[in-house]
Amino acid sequence: MANRFDVRRQNGFVSVAMLCFFLLYLPIATLVVYAFNDNDSVVIWKGFSLRWFHIAWNNALVIESSIRSFQIAAVAAVLATITATMAALATTRTKPYPGLTLKYAFINQPLMVPEIVTAVALLIVFSRIKIWTGYSGLGYLVAAHTAFCIPFAYLPIRARLESMDLSLETAAADLYATKWKTFRHVTLPLLWPGILAGLMLAFVVSLDDVVITEFVKSGGQDTLPTYMLGQLRRTVTPEVNAISTAFLVLSIGIVTAFFFISRKRT
Amino acid sequence: MFSHSYHLMVRIKLVSRLPPVNDHAGEGNILTAIRPAVEAKGVTRIFRGTGQDSVRALDNVSVAIRENEFFTLLGPSGCGKTTLLRLIAGFDYPTDGEIQLYGQDIAPLPPFKRPVNTVFQSYALFPHMTVAENIGFGLKMLGKPKAEIEARVDAMLKLVHMQELKNRRTSQISGGQQQRVALARALAPQPKVLLLDEPLSALDYKLRKEMQIELKRLQHETGITFIFVTHDQEEALTMSDRIAVMSAGNILQVGTPWDVYDHPAERFVADFIGETNFLTGMVESAGNGQARIALRSGAKICATAAAGFRAGGNATLMVRPEHAKLVKGRGDLTGTIETIVYFGTDTHIHVRLDEGDVFMVRQQNSRSASCGFENGDKVGISIGDDAAQVLKD
Fold it and tell me: What pLDDT is attached to residue B12?
């Protein structure tokens, strides 16, 4: 494997790689370390303590916004994944036709349009709707999150569908499976790893969104990221580090779990 | 509209009520032998391309395939053989015409309502299922009870000699084994007709020869009508009861392997199947299925000819390489040997005729003597009275 042209043998490869890892992980490592700081400062180390975790855990606002974050992420990720699955089926189970590329662009629009533009647009539209309907619940956040999560769910599902042999579905139809049974017994099981990957991506993307949430949310609808952003405007304590660390552990946990589930399926 | 859909429902019921093929076994061979299992009547399929160009993949094709027959659709790629197979399977619908299964038009039915199964060129085995689950899939979709499915799957595994690999994933077995699973899966629901779309093309030479024999055995043991698609003329000749030779959306000839090889209806068939020499000449006299032809070399030879050839017309003659003989001295044709190719069982000798064309003679080899000719020899070619045939162009 490791021949003369292997990238790992290029001059300076190791140093560049080390620098990248250093820049990526040093801030995160610092954040995690100072979460255990027994001091009010996030930069001056005093000693080891779980005090800030304790404080965060007992902070009703933290818990409330965390729960809200998970609620929105769960609903939005599921809705986005269902929509993305249908979109992926519709855009791959067809011969290329004029306008198909336009549809790809349309579905992936949230990836291309600057988030701030979407955020302002949603703010304007939703504020009108709020006046007309009088409704000001979490629905707006769920709708917004679903919309920008769709491309994240769509991409892995489409990739999976494109690598799937179309003759499998033909074979199922030949063996007396109706369209629904073909989907249920052949397409869906084979697509499952892609769907899980899409679901996971959508969930994580929804969980840490700040910009759109900040613009769309009504009073008292802070998610954990917007709550933390609000905290930064006041005095910064290692409580923020503690919350972030807990979040980090949770994210790694979710990703790992999804990885093992999807590996078992394939 | 209403009466049409009602009509369709009746048809569907009729098709699903057809008794399995095996039940006919006792009815007597004369009746079953002449009964068409599948009949295409004036089938046309036009593929509309982008813009103006459209392709006539099948052009008013009619053919009757008999019950219990090993029937082959043979032709070069693009001739429409796979299109016809897909129309019978239900993966595609004819632009015009009827596809009948035991007398009922099945052309409007979706594939899952046709008692017809397919062995795909790529096998199309379900990668997320075991060998046994693959084989039982059709029966499961038909809603058969579990015990029945298990029994049938076991019987199928036995039929294709795959019992030990029952619980393997399809990715864990070899190409030849995948082929057997694909066959077992298609045979398990006991279809009226089995369609095979170039199923042996992915196998290496030796395995392909083995599977050819295996397929013949399976067809014999199950008594199911096989419709086999191939572009390999040798495969078609060795396996089929009857062959339909196709070209450019038409069926040119239907007949036994012997028919299409030795009595081709037209030039394309003679050219596509086996190796052939073509000679041009003029009809001197014709009648009674025989013709006397004056070749360009001046020699006159006898040939079999269909009705319709008249004295004075031009004619293309076909002579198979094994039906001509190389002689020292003058024959019906004369020329110079250009190349001698040794094939083990026989030798192919290419002779440059005095008129300029190349003529090939195939000569059986023997252990004790060489072929008796050398490159550059002036030789004669003798064509027997029964060796040549006049062809339609």
Answer: 39
Strand-pairing partners, residue B316, are B280, B391
Question: Which H helix or E strand runs over B317?
Answer: strand B314-319
Which structural domain, as residue segments, surrounds residue A69? 59-265
Residue B7: pLDDT band by 50, 70, 90 thresholds?
very low
Q: Which residues of chain A have pLDDT under 70?
A: 1-4, 262, 264-266
DSSP annotation of B266: B
Lowest mean pLDDT among B27-31, B36-40, B153-157, B321-325: B27-31
Tell which residue, B322, B173, B156, B288, has the closest CA to residue B224.
B156
Answer yes or no: do B120 and A170 touch at CB < 8 A.
Answer: yes
Domain around B344: 275-391
In a domain, residue B155? The reply is no
Q: CA angle at residue A68 from A67 to A71, to 5 degrees?
A: 85
Helix or strand (DSSP H, E) at B104: strand B104-105
Q: Say what the pLDDT of residue A183 is.
A: 93
- Residue B128 is nearest to which of A175, A176, A189, comparing CB atoms? A189
Share of chain B above pLDDT 90, in %: 37
Are B123 and B134 spatial neighbours (Cβ–Cβ below 8 Å)?
A: no
Which of B47, B93, B112 is the best mutation test for A, with the most CBs of A within 10 A?
B112
By Cβ distance, the residue of B110, B112, B124 closest to A165 is B124
Partners of A185 in beta bridges: none
Encode pLDDT of B179-226 as tens digits: 899 999 999 999 999 999 998 887 888 888 888 888 898 898 888 999
Q: From residue A241, give the alpha-carbon distance in Å to each of A25, A60, A248.
A: 15, 17, 10
In the prediction, which pLDDT does A264 show? 63
Is B157 within the bounds of a domain?
no
Q: Is residue B45 part of a domain?
A: yes
Residue B119 has pLDDT above 90, yes or no: yes
Provide the b/e sequence for B300-314 (b: ≥16 CB within 10 Å). Answer: ebebbbeeebeeeee
Q: How far is A190 from chain B (nearest CA, A)?
A: 7
Q: Cα-Cα-Cα-Cα dihedral of B84, B85, B89, B91, to 10°?
A: -70
> Does residue A13 lie within any of the structural domains?
no
B122 contacts A173? CB cut-off 8 A: no
Please tell me the distance in Å from B154's CA to the nearest CA on chain A. Answer: 18
ipTM of the complex: 0.76
* Residue A80, in any domain of the structure: yes
Residue B185 contacts A where some CB pair is shorter than 8 Å: yes
Task: Tell me which residue in A171, A176, A186 faces B142 most closely, judged by beta carbons.
Answer: A176
> What pLDDT is recorded for position B364?
87
pLDDT at B120: 92
Q: Are residues B249 and B299 in the same domain?
A: no
pLDDT at B13: 38
Q: Does B120 touch chain A (CB under 8 A)?
A: yes
